């Protein structure tokens, strides 16, 4: 019998209709954790007692007639998101005893909606890296090829869904840390609009560019999860008071008539041929469904990368300054070097970067008014090997930082919503992702486009050989 991974909507429906019990779902998930934890170093904290208590509570609420959109769905969170009574380590030795006093707002909302928390997930230390390597908790490899990276910094978040342990997970995204591992592991990963989802109870890396979002197999599942976790929060002054739509309601609308912007600059300049082919074919599929292709040009992209770097280094140095001052040896050498480097960013450079951000938002808003969403590759390359520092692309040997993050980090600076959706595989069976980007608070439209694309393709039905 072929194993069928957990599907958010199918599980919640079965539990609500009392065709299965939440505690049965959770027992199966905990069994899979036992199978995969050691080879994949998925979790920094496994919480079987808590998850069984929550599952029992879900079954009781269902009996009472509570309508729970995520009834019994197993999930886990990146270990920079607070869970009451559990250390929030941020993947670092520096925070091994940093026990949270309360649940993060997103955890509380999801549990209130019936989801069941399994534990906390491995990540690149301090969320400050894109490979997902972690010297403290162990590397979390890619299930499609365990010699390759899963991507970061939300490595555990991607792998836990890919291996069928969780129906969905939460990650954070400051430069691509949800979208890139989702793309490398054949998942949908959504970075919502800045302020769409509360960050209360989340350890910061860069306060003005951090985003919290879900990873799941499909846009349909992602829509349900986003609906449960989005919205204003009095504990997070950056959260938006903009109303939360019914993200699932629009999924069935066709894409006919929508304008898909395809960049003429930057994003397609130097890609692995199989990535270029898969992304182009995906865009062709959308136009076959009735969408209209529109040429797009985003100005200021070279300046965006420099500004992103100045902001993230400065804000990270500020966020971790007390710990770096008192216990620098608790950070890995590469993370300590980055944080110390951020202390030497001149204030004038930080302010210039913020001015670039304002100009970018102004000028990109004009460009995005010409189309409904932008379509780009999620990365220039498929998953690379551990220890690899460069990748050969048509434009020459390219640092991995650029090959992965040049596609994603611009939209952390702009704060726009962006998601990745599976769109193909390389010849050596490694996933390829398509990135869709919209105007602020256009998540419903992005999910609709991704869902309609997934209705016409079967990439998301493929599972890693270890599943």
Automatic annotation (TrEMBL):
It comes from Symmachiella macrocystis. PROSITE patterns: AMIDASES. InterPro entries: Amidase (IPR000120), Amidase_CS (IPR020556), Amidase_dom (IPR023631), AS_sf (IPR036928). It comes from the Bacteria. Its EC number is 6.3.5.-. One of its GO terms (molecular function) is transferase activity. This is Glutamyl-tRNA(Gln) amidotransferase subunit A. Residues 24-447 form the Amidase domain. Keywords: Ligase, Transferase. The keyword Ligase applies. The gene is gatA_2. SUPFAM superfamilies: Amidase signature (AS) enzymes. PANTHER family: AMIDASE AMID-RELATED (PTHR11895:SF176), TRANSAMIDASE (PTHR11895). It is an enzyme of class 6 (ligase).
């Amino acid at each position: 019998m072929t194993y069928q991974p957990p599907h958010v909507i199918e599980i919640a429906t079965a539990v609500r209709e009392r065709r299965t019990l939440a505690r049965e779902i959770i027992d199966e998930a905990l069994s899979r954790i036992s199978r995969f934890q050691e080879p994949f170093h998925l979790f920094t904290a496994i919480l079987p007692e808590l998850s069984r208590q929550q599952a029992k509570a879900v079954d009781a609420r269902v009996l009472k007639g509570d309508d729970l959109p995520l009834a019994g769905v197993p999930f886990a969170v990146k270990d920079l998101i607070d869970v009451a009574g559990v250390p929030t380590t941020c993947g670092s030795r520096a925070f091994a005893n940093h026990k949270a006093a309360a649940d993060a707002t997103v955890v509380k909302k999801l549990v209130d909606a019936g989801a069941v928390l399994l534990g906390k997930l491995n990540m690149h230390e301090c969320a400050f890296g894109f490979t997902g390597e972690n010297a403290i908790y162990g590397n979390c490899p890619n299930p499609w090829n365990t010699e390759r990276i899963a991507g970061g910094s939300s490595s555990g978040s991607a792998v836990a869904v890919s291996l069928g342990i969780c129906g969905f997970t939460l990650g954070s995204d400051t430069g691509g840390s949800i979208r890139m591992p989702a793309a490398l592991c054949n998942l949908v990963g959504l970075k919502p609009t800045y302020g769409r989802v509360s960050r209360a109870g989340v350890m910061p890396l860069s306060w003005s560019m951090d985003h919290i979002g879900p990873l799941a197999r499909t846009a349909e599942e992602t829509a349900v999860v986003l609906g449960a976790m989005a919205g204003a929060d009095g504990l997070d002054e950056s959260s938006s008071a903009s109303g939360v739509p019914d993200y699932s309601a629009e999924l069935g609308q066709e894409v006919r008539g929508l304008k898909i912007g395809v960049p003429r600059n930057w994003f397609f300049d130097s890609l692995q041929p199989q990535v270029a082919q898969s992304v182009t074919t995906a865009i062709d599929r959308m136009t076959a469904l009735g969408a209209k292709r529109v040429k797009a040009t985003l100005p200021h992209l070279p300046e965006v990368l420099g500004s992103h770097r100045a902001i993230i280094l400065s804000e990270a140095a500020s966020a971790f300054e007390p710990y770096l001052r008192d216990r620098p040896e608790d950070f890995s050498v590469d993370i300590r070097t980055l944080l110390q480097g951020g202390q030497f960013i001149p204030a004038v450079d930080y302010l210039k970067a913020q001015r670039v951000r304002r100009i970018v938002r102004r000028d990109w808003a004009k460009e995005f008014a010409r189309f409904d969403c932008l379509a780009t590759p999620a990365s220039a390359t498929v998953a690379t090997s551990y220890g690899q520092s460069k990748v050969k692309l048509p434009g020459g040997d390219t640092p991995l930082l650029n090959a992965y993050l040049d596609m994603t980090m611009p939209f952390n600076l702009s704060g726009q919503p962006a998601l990745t959706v599976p769109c193909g595989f390389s010849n050596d069976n490694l996933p390829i992702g398509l990135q869709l980007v919209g105007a602020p608070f256009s998540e419903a439209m992005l999910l609709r486009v991704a869902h309609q694309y997934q209705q016409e393709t079967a990439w998301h039905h493929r599972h890693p050989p270890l599943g």
